[in-house]
Amino acid sequence: QAKARGRNGYRLYAPSMSGEGVERLRLETFLRRSLEKDEMFLNFQPQVEIDTGRLTGVEALVRWNHPELGLVPPIRFIPLAEDTGFINQLGLWVLEQACRQMVRWDNAGLHVPKMAVNLSAKQFDRGSIASWVGDILRETGLEPHRLQLEVTESVIMNTGDALAYINDLHAIGVGLAIDDFGTGYSSLAYLKQMPVQTLKIDRSFIKDISTDVNDEAIAIAIIQLGKSMNLSVIAEGVETDEQAAFLLRHGCNLAQGYYYSKPVLADELLARWREAEAVHE
Ligand code: C2E
Ligand code: MG
Ligand code: MG
Ligand code: MG
């Protein structure tokens, strides 16, 4: 109908506003209200020691359940949140919820050693992150060393002052991991100056680890690099027994992936791991 009316000199939407643009605008409008409408929640994915099966930490992964759209995956709304600046509000919310959850698990008798939370590049645009991270840690009572922030290589390489902000975080006792390692371009010289504790091998290299010689070579190289730089290395996206065995054989004893657990709700994690960990005590 918009087209027919166009002849009369007006349109319902600008020609540049493609169907995709309309969809994006709608998503953006919904997204802006998602927190006040209580539509966001967190899932937590265990990180485990391969040889013992012990829980070494969890990663917080945000989920958006919209009444009309259903469950919207992070790959659809995180980039949008970054573009619109909403990521700052969302990121604060995620961090606070994640820290609170650690204290709740402590009180319920499950000691999760470490909470990993993802950070976007955009969250570095507002000056020192350490000040608001420090505020949240004080408010929630979580010890700084139990928090690990995950950033990708591009955050480190493309953010002005990244080194200074990361040093600030290090100074307050928060850990840092490089997420999706191997998919970006990090200068090893730069990496060496960073107070980073952990490299996360991207899941694209783990997927065909036992059949693709290139992926195998990359995974082994990252494990070796981590060793020589005294960093811990964790493999993402471990789905099979073979992958876990391969990693262990090559000196990587930390993993996260569907083989161990999908990301789950806080209570599910508690139910599954409270007894499992008690056995180890
Ligand atoms: P990521 O930080 O690399 O998180 C790992 C992703 O891999 C998660 O996807 C997780 O569900 C998925 N995954 C874990 N194990 C397996 C496996 O064995 N097989 C497969 N196929 N996938 C696995 P998810 O939750 O969809 O998140 C995607 C990305 O969205 C994250 O990648 C992260 O970059 C971003 N993200 C999620 N939550 C947040 C957040 O709170 N803040 C920010 N800034 N980004 C977030
Ligand atoms: Mg991550
Ligand atoms: Mg990753
Ligand atoms: Mg990622």
From TrEMBL:
Listed name of the protein: EAL domain-containing protein
Occurrences of domain EAL (ranges): 24-277
Coiled coil: none
Organism in which the protein naturally occurs: Pseudoduganella ginsengisoli
Domain of life the protein comes from: Bacteria
